[in-house]
Amino acid sequence: MHSQVALLNKKIAPVRAQLLAHSVYSKINNLEGLKNFTQYHVFAVWDFMSLLKSLQIGLTSVQLPWVPVGTANTRYLINEIVLGEESDVDEHDNRVSHFELYVKAMRQMGATTNFIDALLHELSISQSIEMAIEQTDLPTQVKSFLQYTFEIAQHAPLHVKAAVFTFGREDLIPDMFTKILNKIYADHPDQVSTFKYYIERHIEVDGGHHSHLALEMVAELCGNDTAKWEEATNASLKALEMRALLWDVIFESITD
Q1: pLDDT of residue 175
Q2: Which of 38, 126, 135, 221 has its CA 20 to 30 A from that of 203?
Q3: What is the pLDDT of residues 28-49, one digit of tens each?
Q4: Residue 168: in which H helix or E strand, if any?
Q5: For the residues of 36-102, what is the DSSP string, one character each?
Q6: Closest listed residue to residue 221, CA positions, set 166, 169, 172
Q7: DSSP label at 30?
Q8: Which pLDDT band, with edges at 50, 70 and 90, does 207 fall under?
Q9: What residues contact 86, with CB distance under 8 A and at least 6 apart?
């Protein structure tokens, strides 16, 4: 099983390396650049939660009457991740989801939340997520990014969802970005403290404990089925390509 995980990582490594070296990071060198980054990156934080909840729906019992679903091990793995993502703590130890914490950080730094607010409003009046995405004024690349996520969340088999969640949606935070963020924080502590906390918390929880849980979940769902591992690899590669589209539009926004 571990050899299959290693093989998947090897196959996606070139695309992942390209994302880590993306030009967008060189543009986030001041507060204005960070604000531009967050107005689009927030969608990767938000739709990540829908991908996560789709896994919880598939791997646990969320209907009445309750009946056991799948294995207790996968139920534990996904519930543990949901607990941390949906009800973590902010810098003042108040319970908050990572998405709500991110939006709070955006507002503290003075970044616009118009795009994400507009999508959430459309969701409240639209019949489907697809319709809500189309009704927004988001750039085409952001729409494509979101559409792929919800195609996976709503229609893909569980092992593919788990792979995209684990390998295709792993946040790419190179050392360069954290160094730049520390500099921006030093210049604007009152505006960037929540975002700095979010990033540090994300690296600690999502990149550490949750990452190990997610890897174990993929391994259990794919098992020894070669076809499932191939499907998992292809979907992860596509997810990373969609992330590249998001990075491209952020780069263009900051450059403009």
Answers
A1: 79
A2: 221
A3: 999 999 999 999 999 999 999 9
A4: none
A5: HHHHHHHHHHHHHHHHHHHHHHHHS--SSS----S-HHHHHHHHHHHHHHHSEE-TTS-EE-HHHHH
A6: 166
A7: S
A8: low
A9: 49, 52, 97
Which of 51-55, 132-136, 171-175, 222-226 bottoms out in mean pLDDT, i.e. has the lowest? Answer: 171-175
Residue keyed to tokens 């088999």: 157
Q: What angle is formed at CA 39 by the lines to CA 34 and CA 41, rounded to 5 degrees?
A: 85
**Rounded distance, CA 52 to CA 85, Å?**
9
Lookup: tokens for 91: 């810098």
The pLDDT confidence band at residue 206, using thresholds 50, 70 and 90, is: low
In this structure, what are the phi and psi dihedrals at residue 95, rounded to the nearest 5 degrees? -65, 135
Burial class from Cβ neighbours inside 10 Å (0-12, 13-18, 19+) for residue 92 reads: exposed
Query: Which two three-digit tokens encode residue 146?
Result: 């979101």
pTM of the model: 0.93
Paired with 89 in beta bridges are 95
Cβ atoms within 10 Å of 86's Cβ, excluding its own: 17
Reading phi first (left if > 0) and then psi (alpha if -120 to 50, else beta), residue 223 is in left
Q: Which residues pair with 95 in a beta bridge?
A: 89
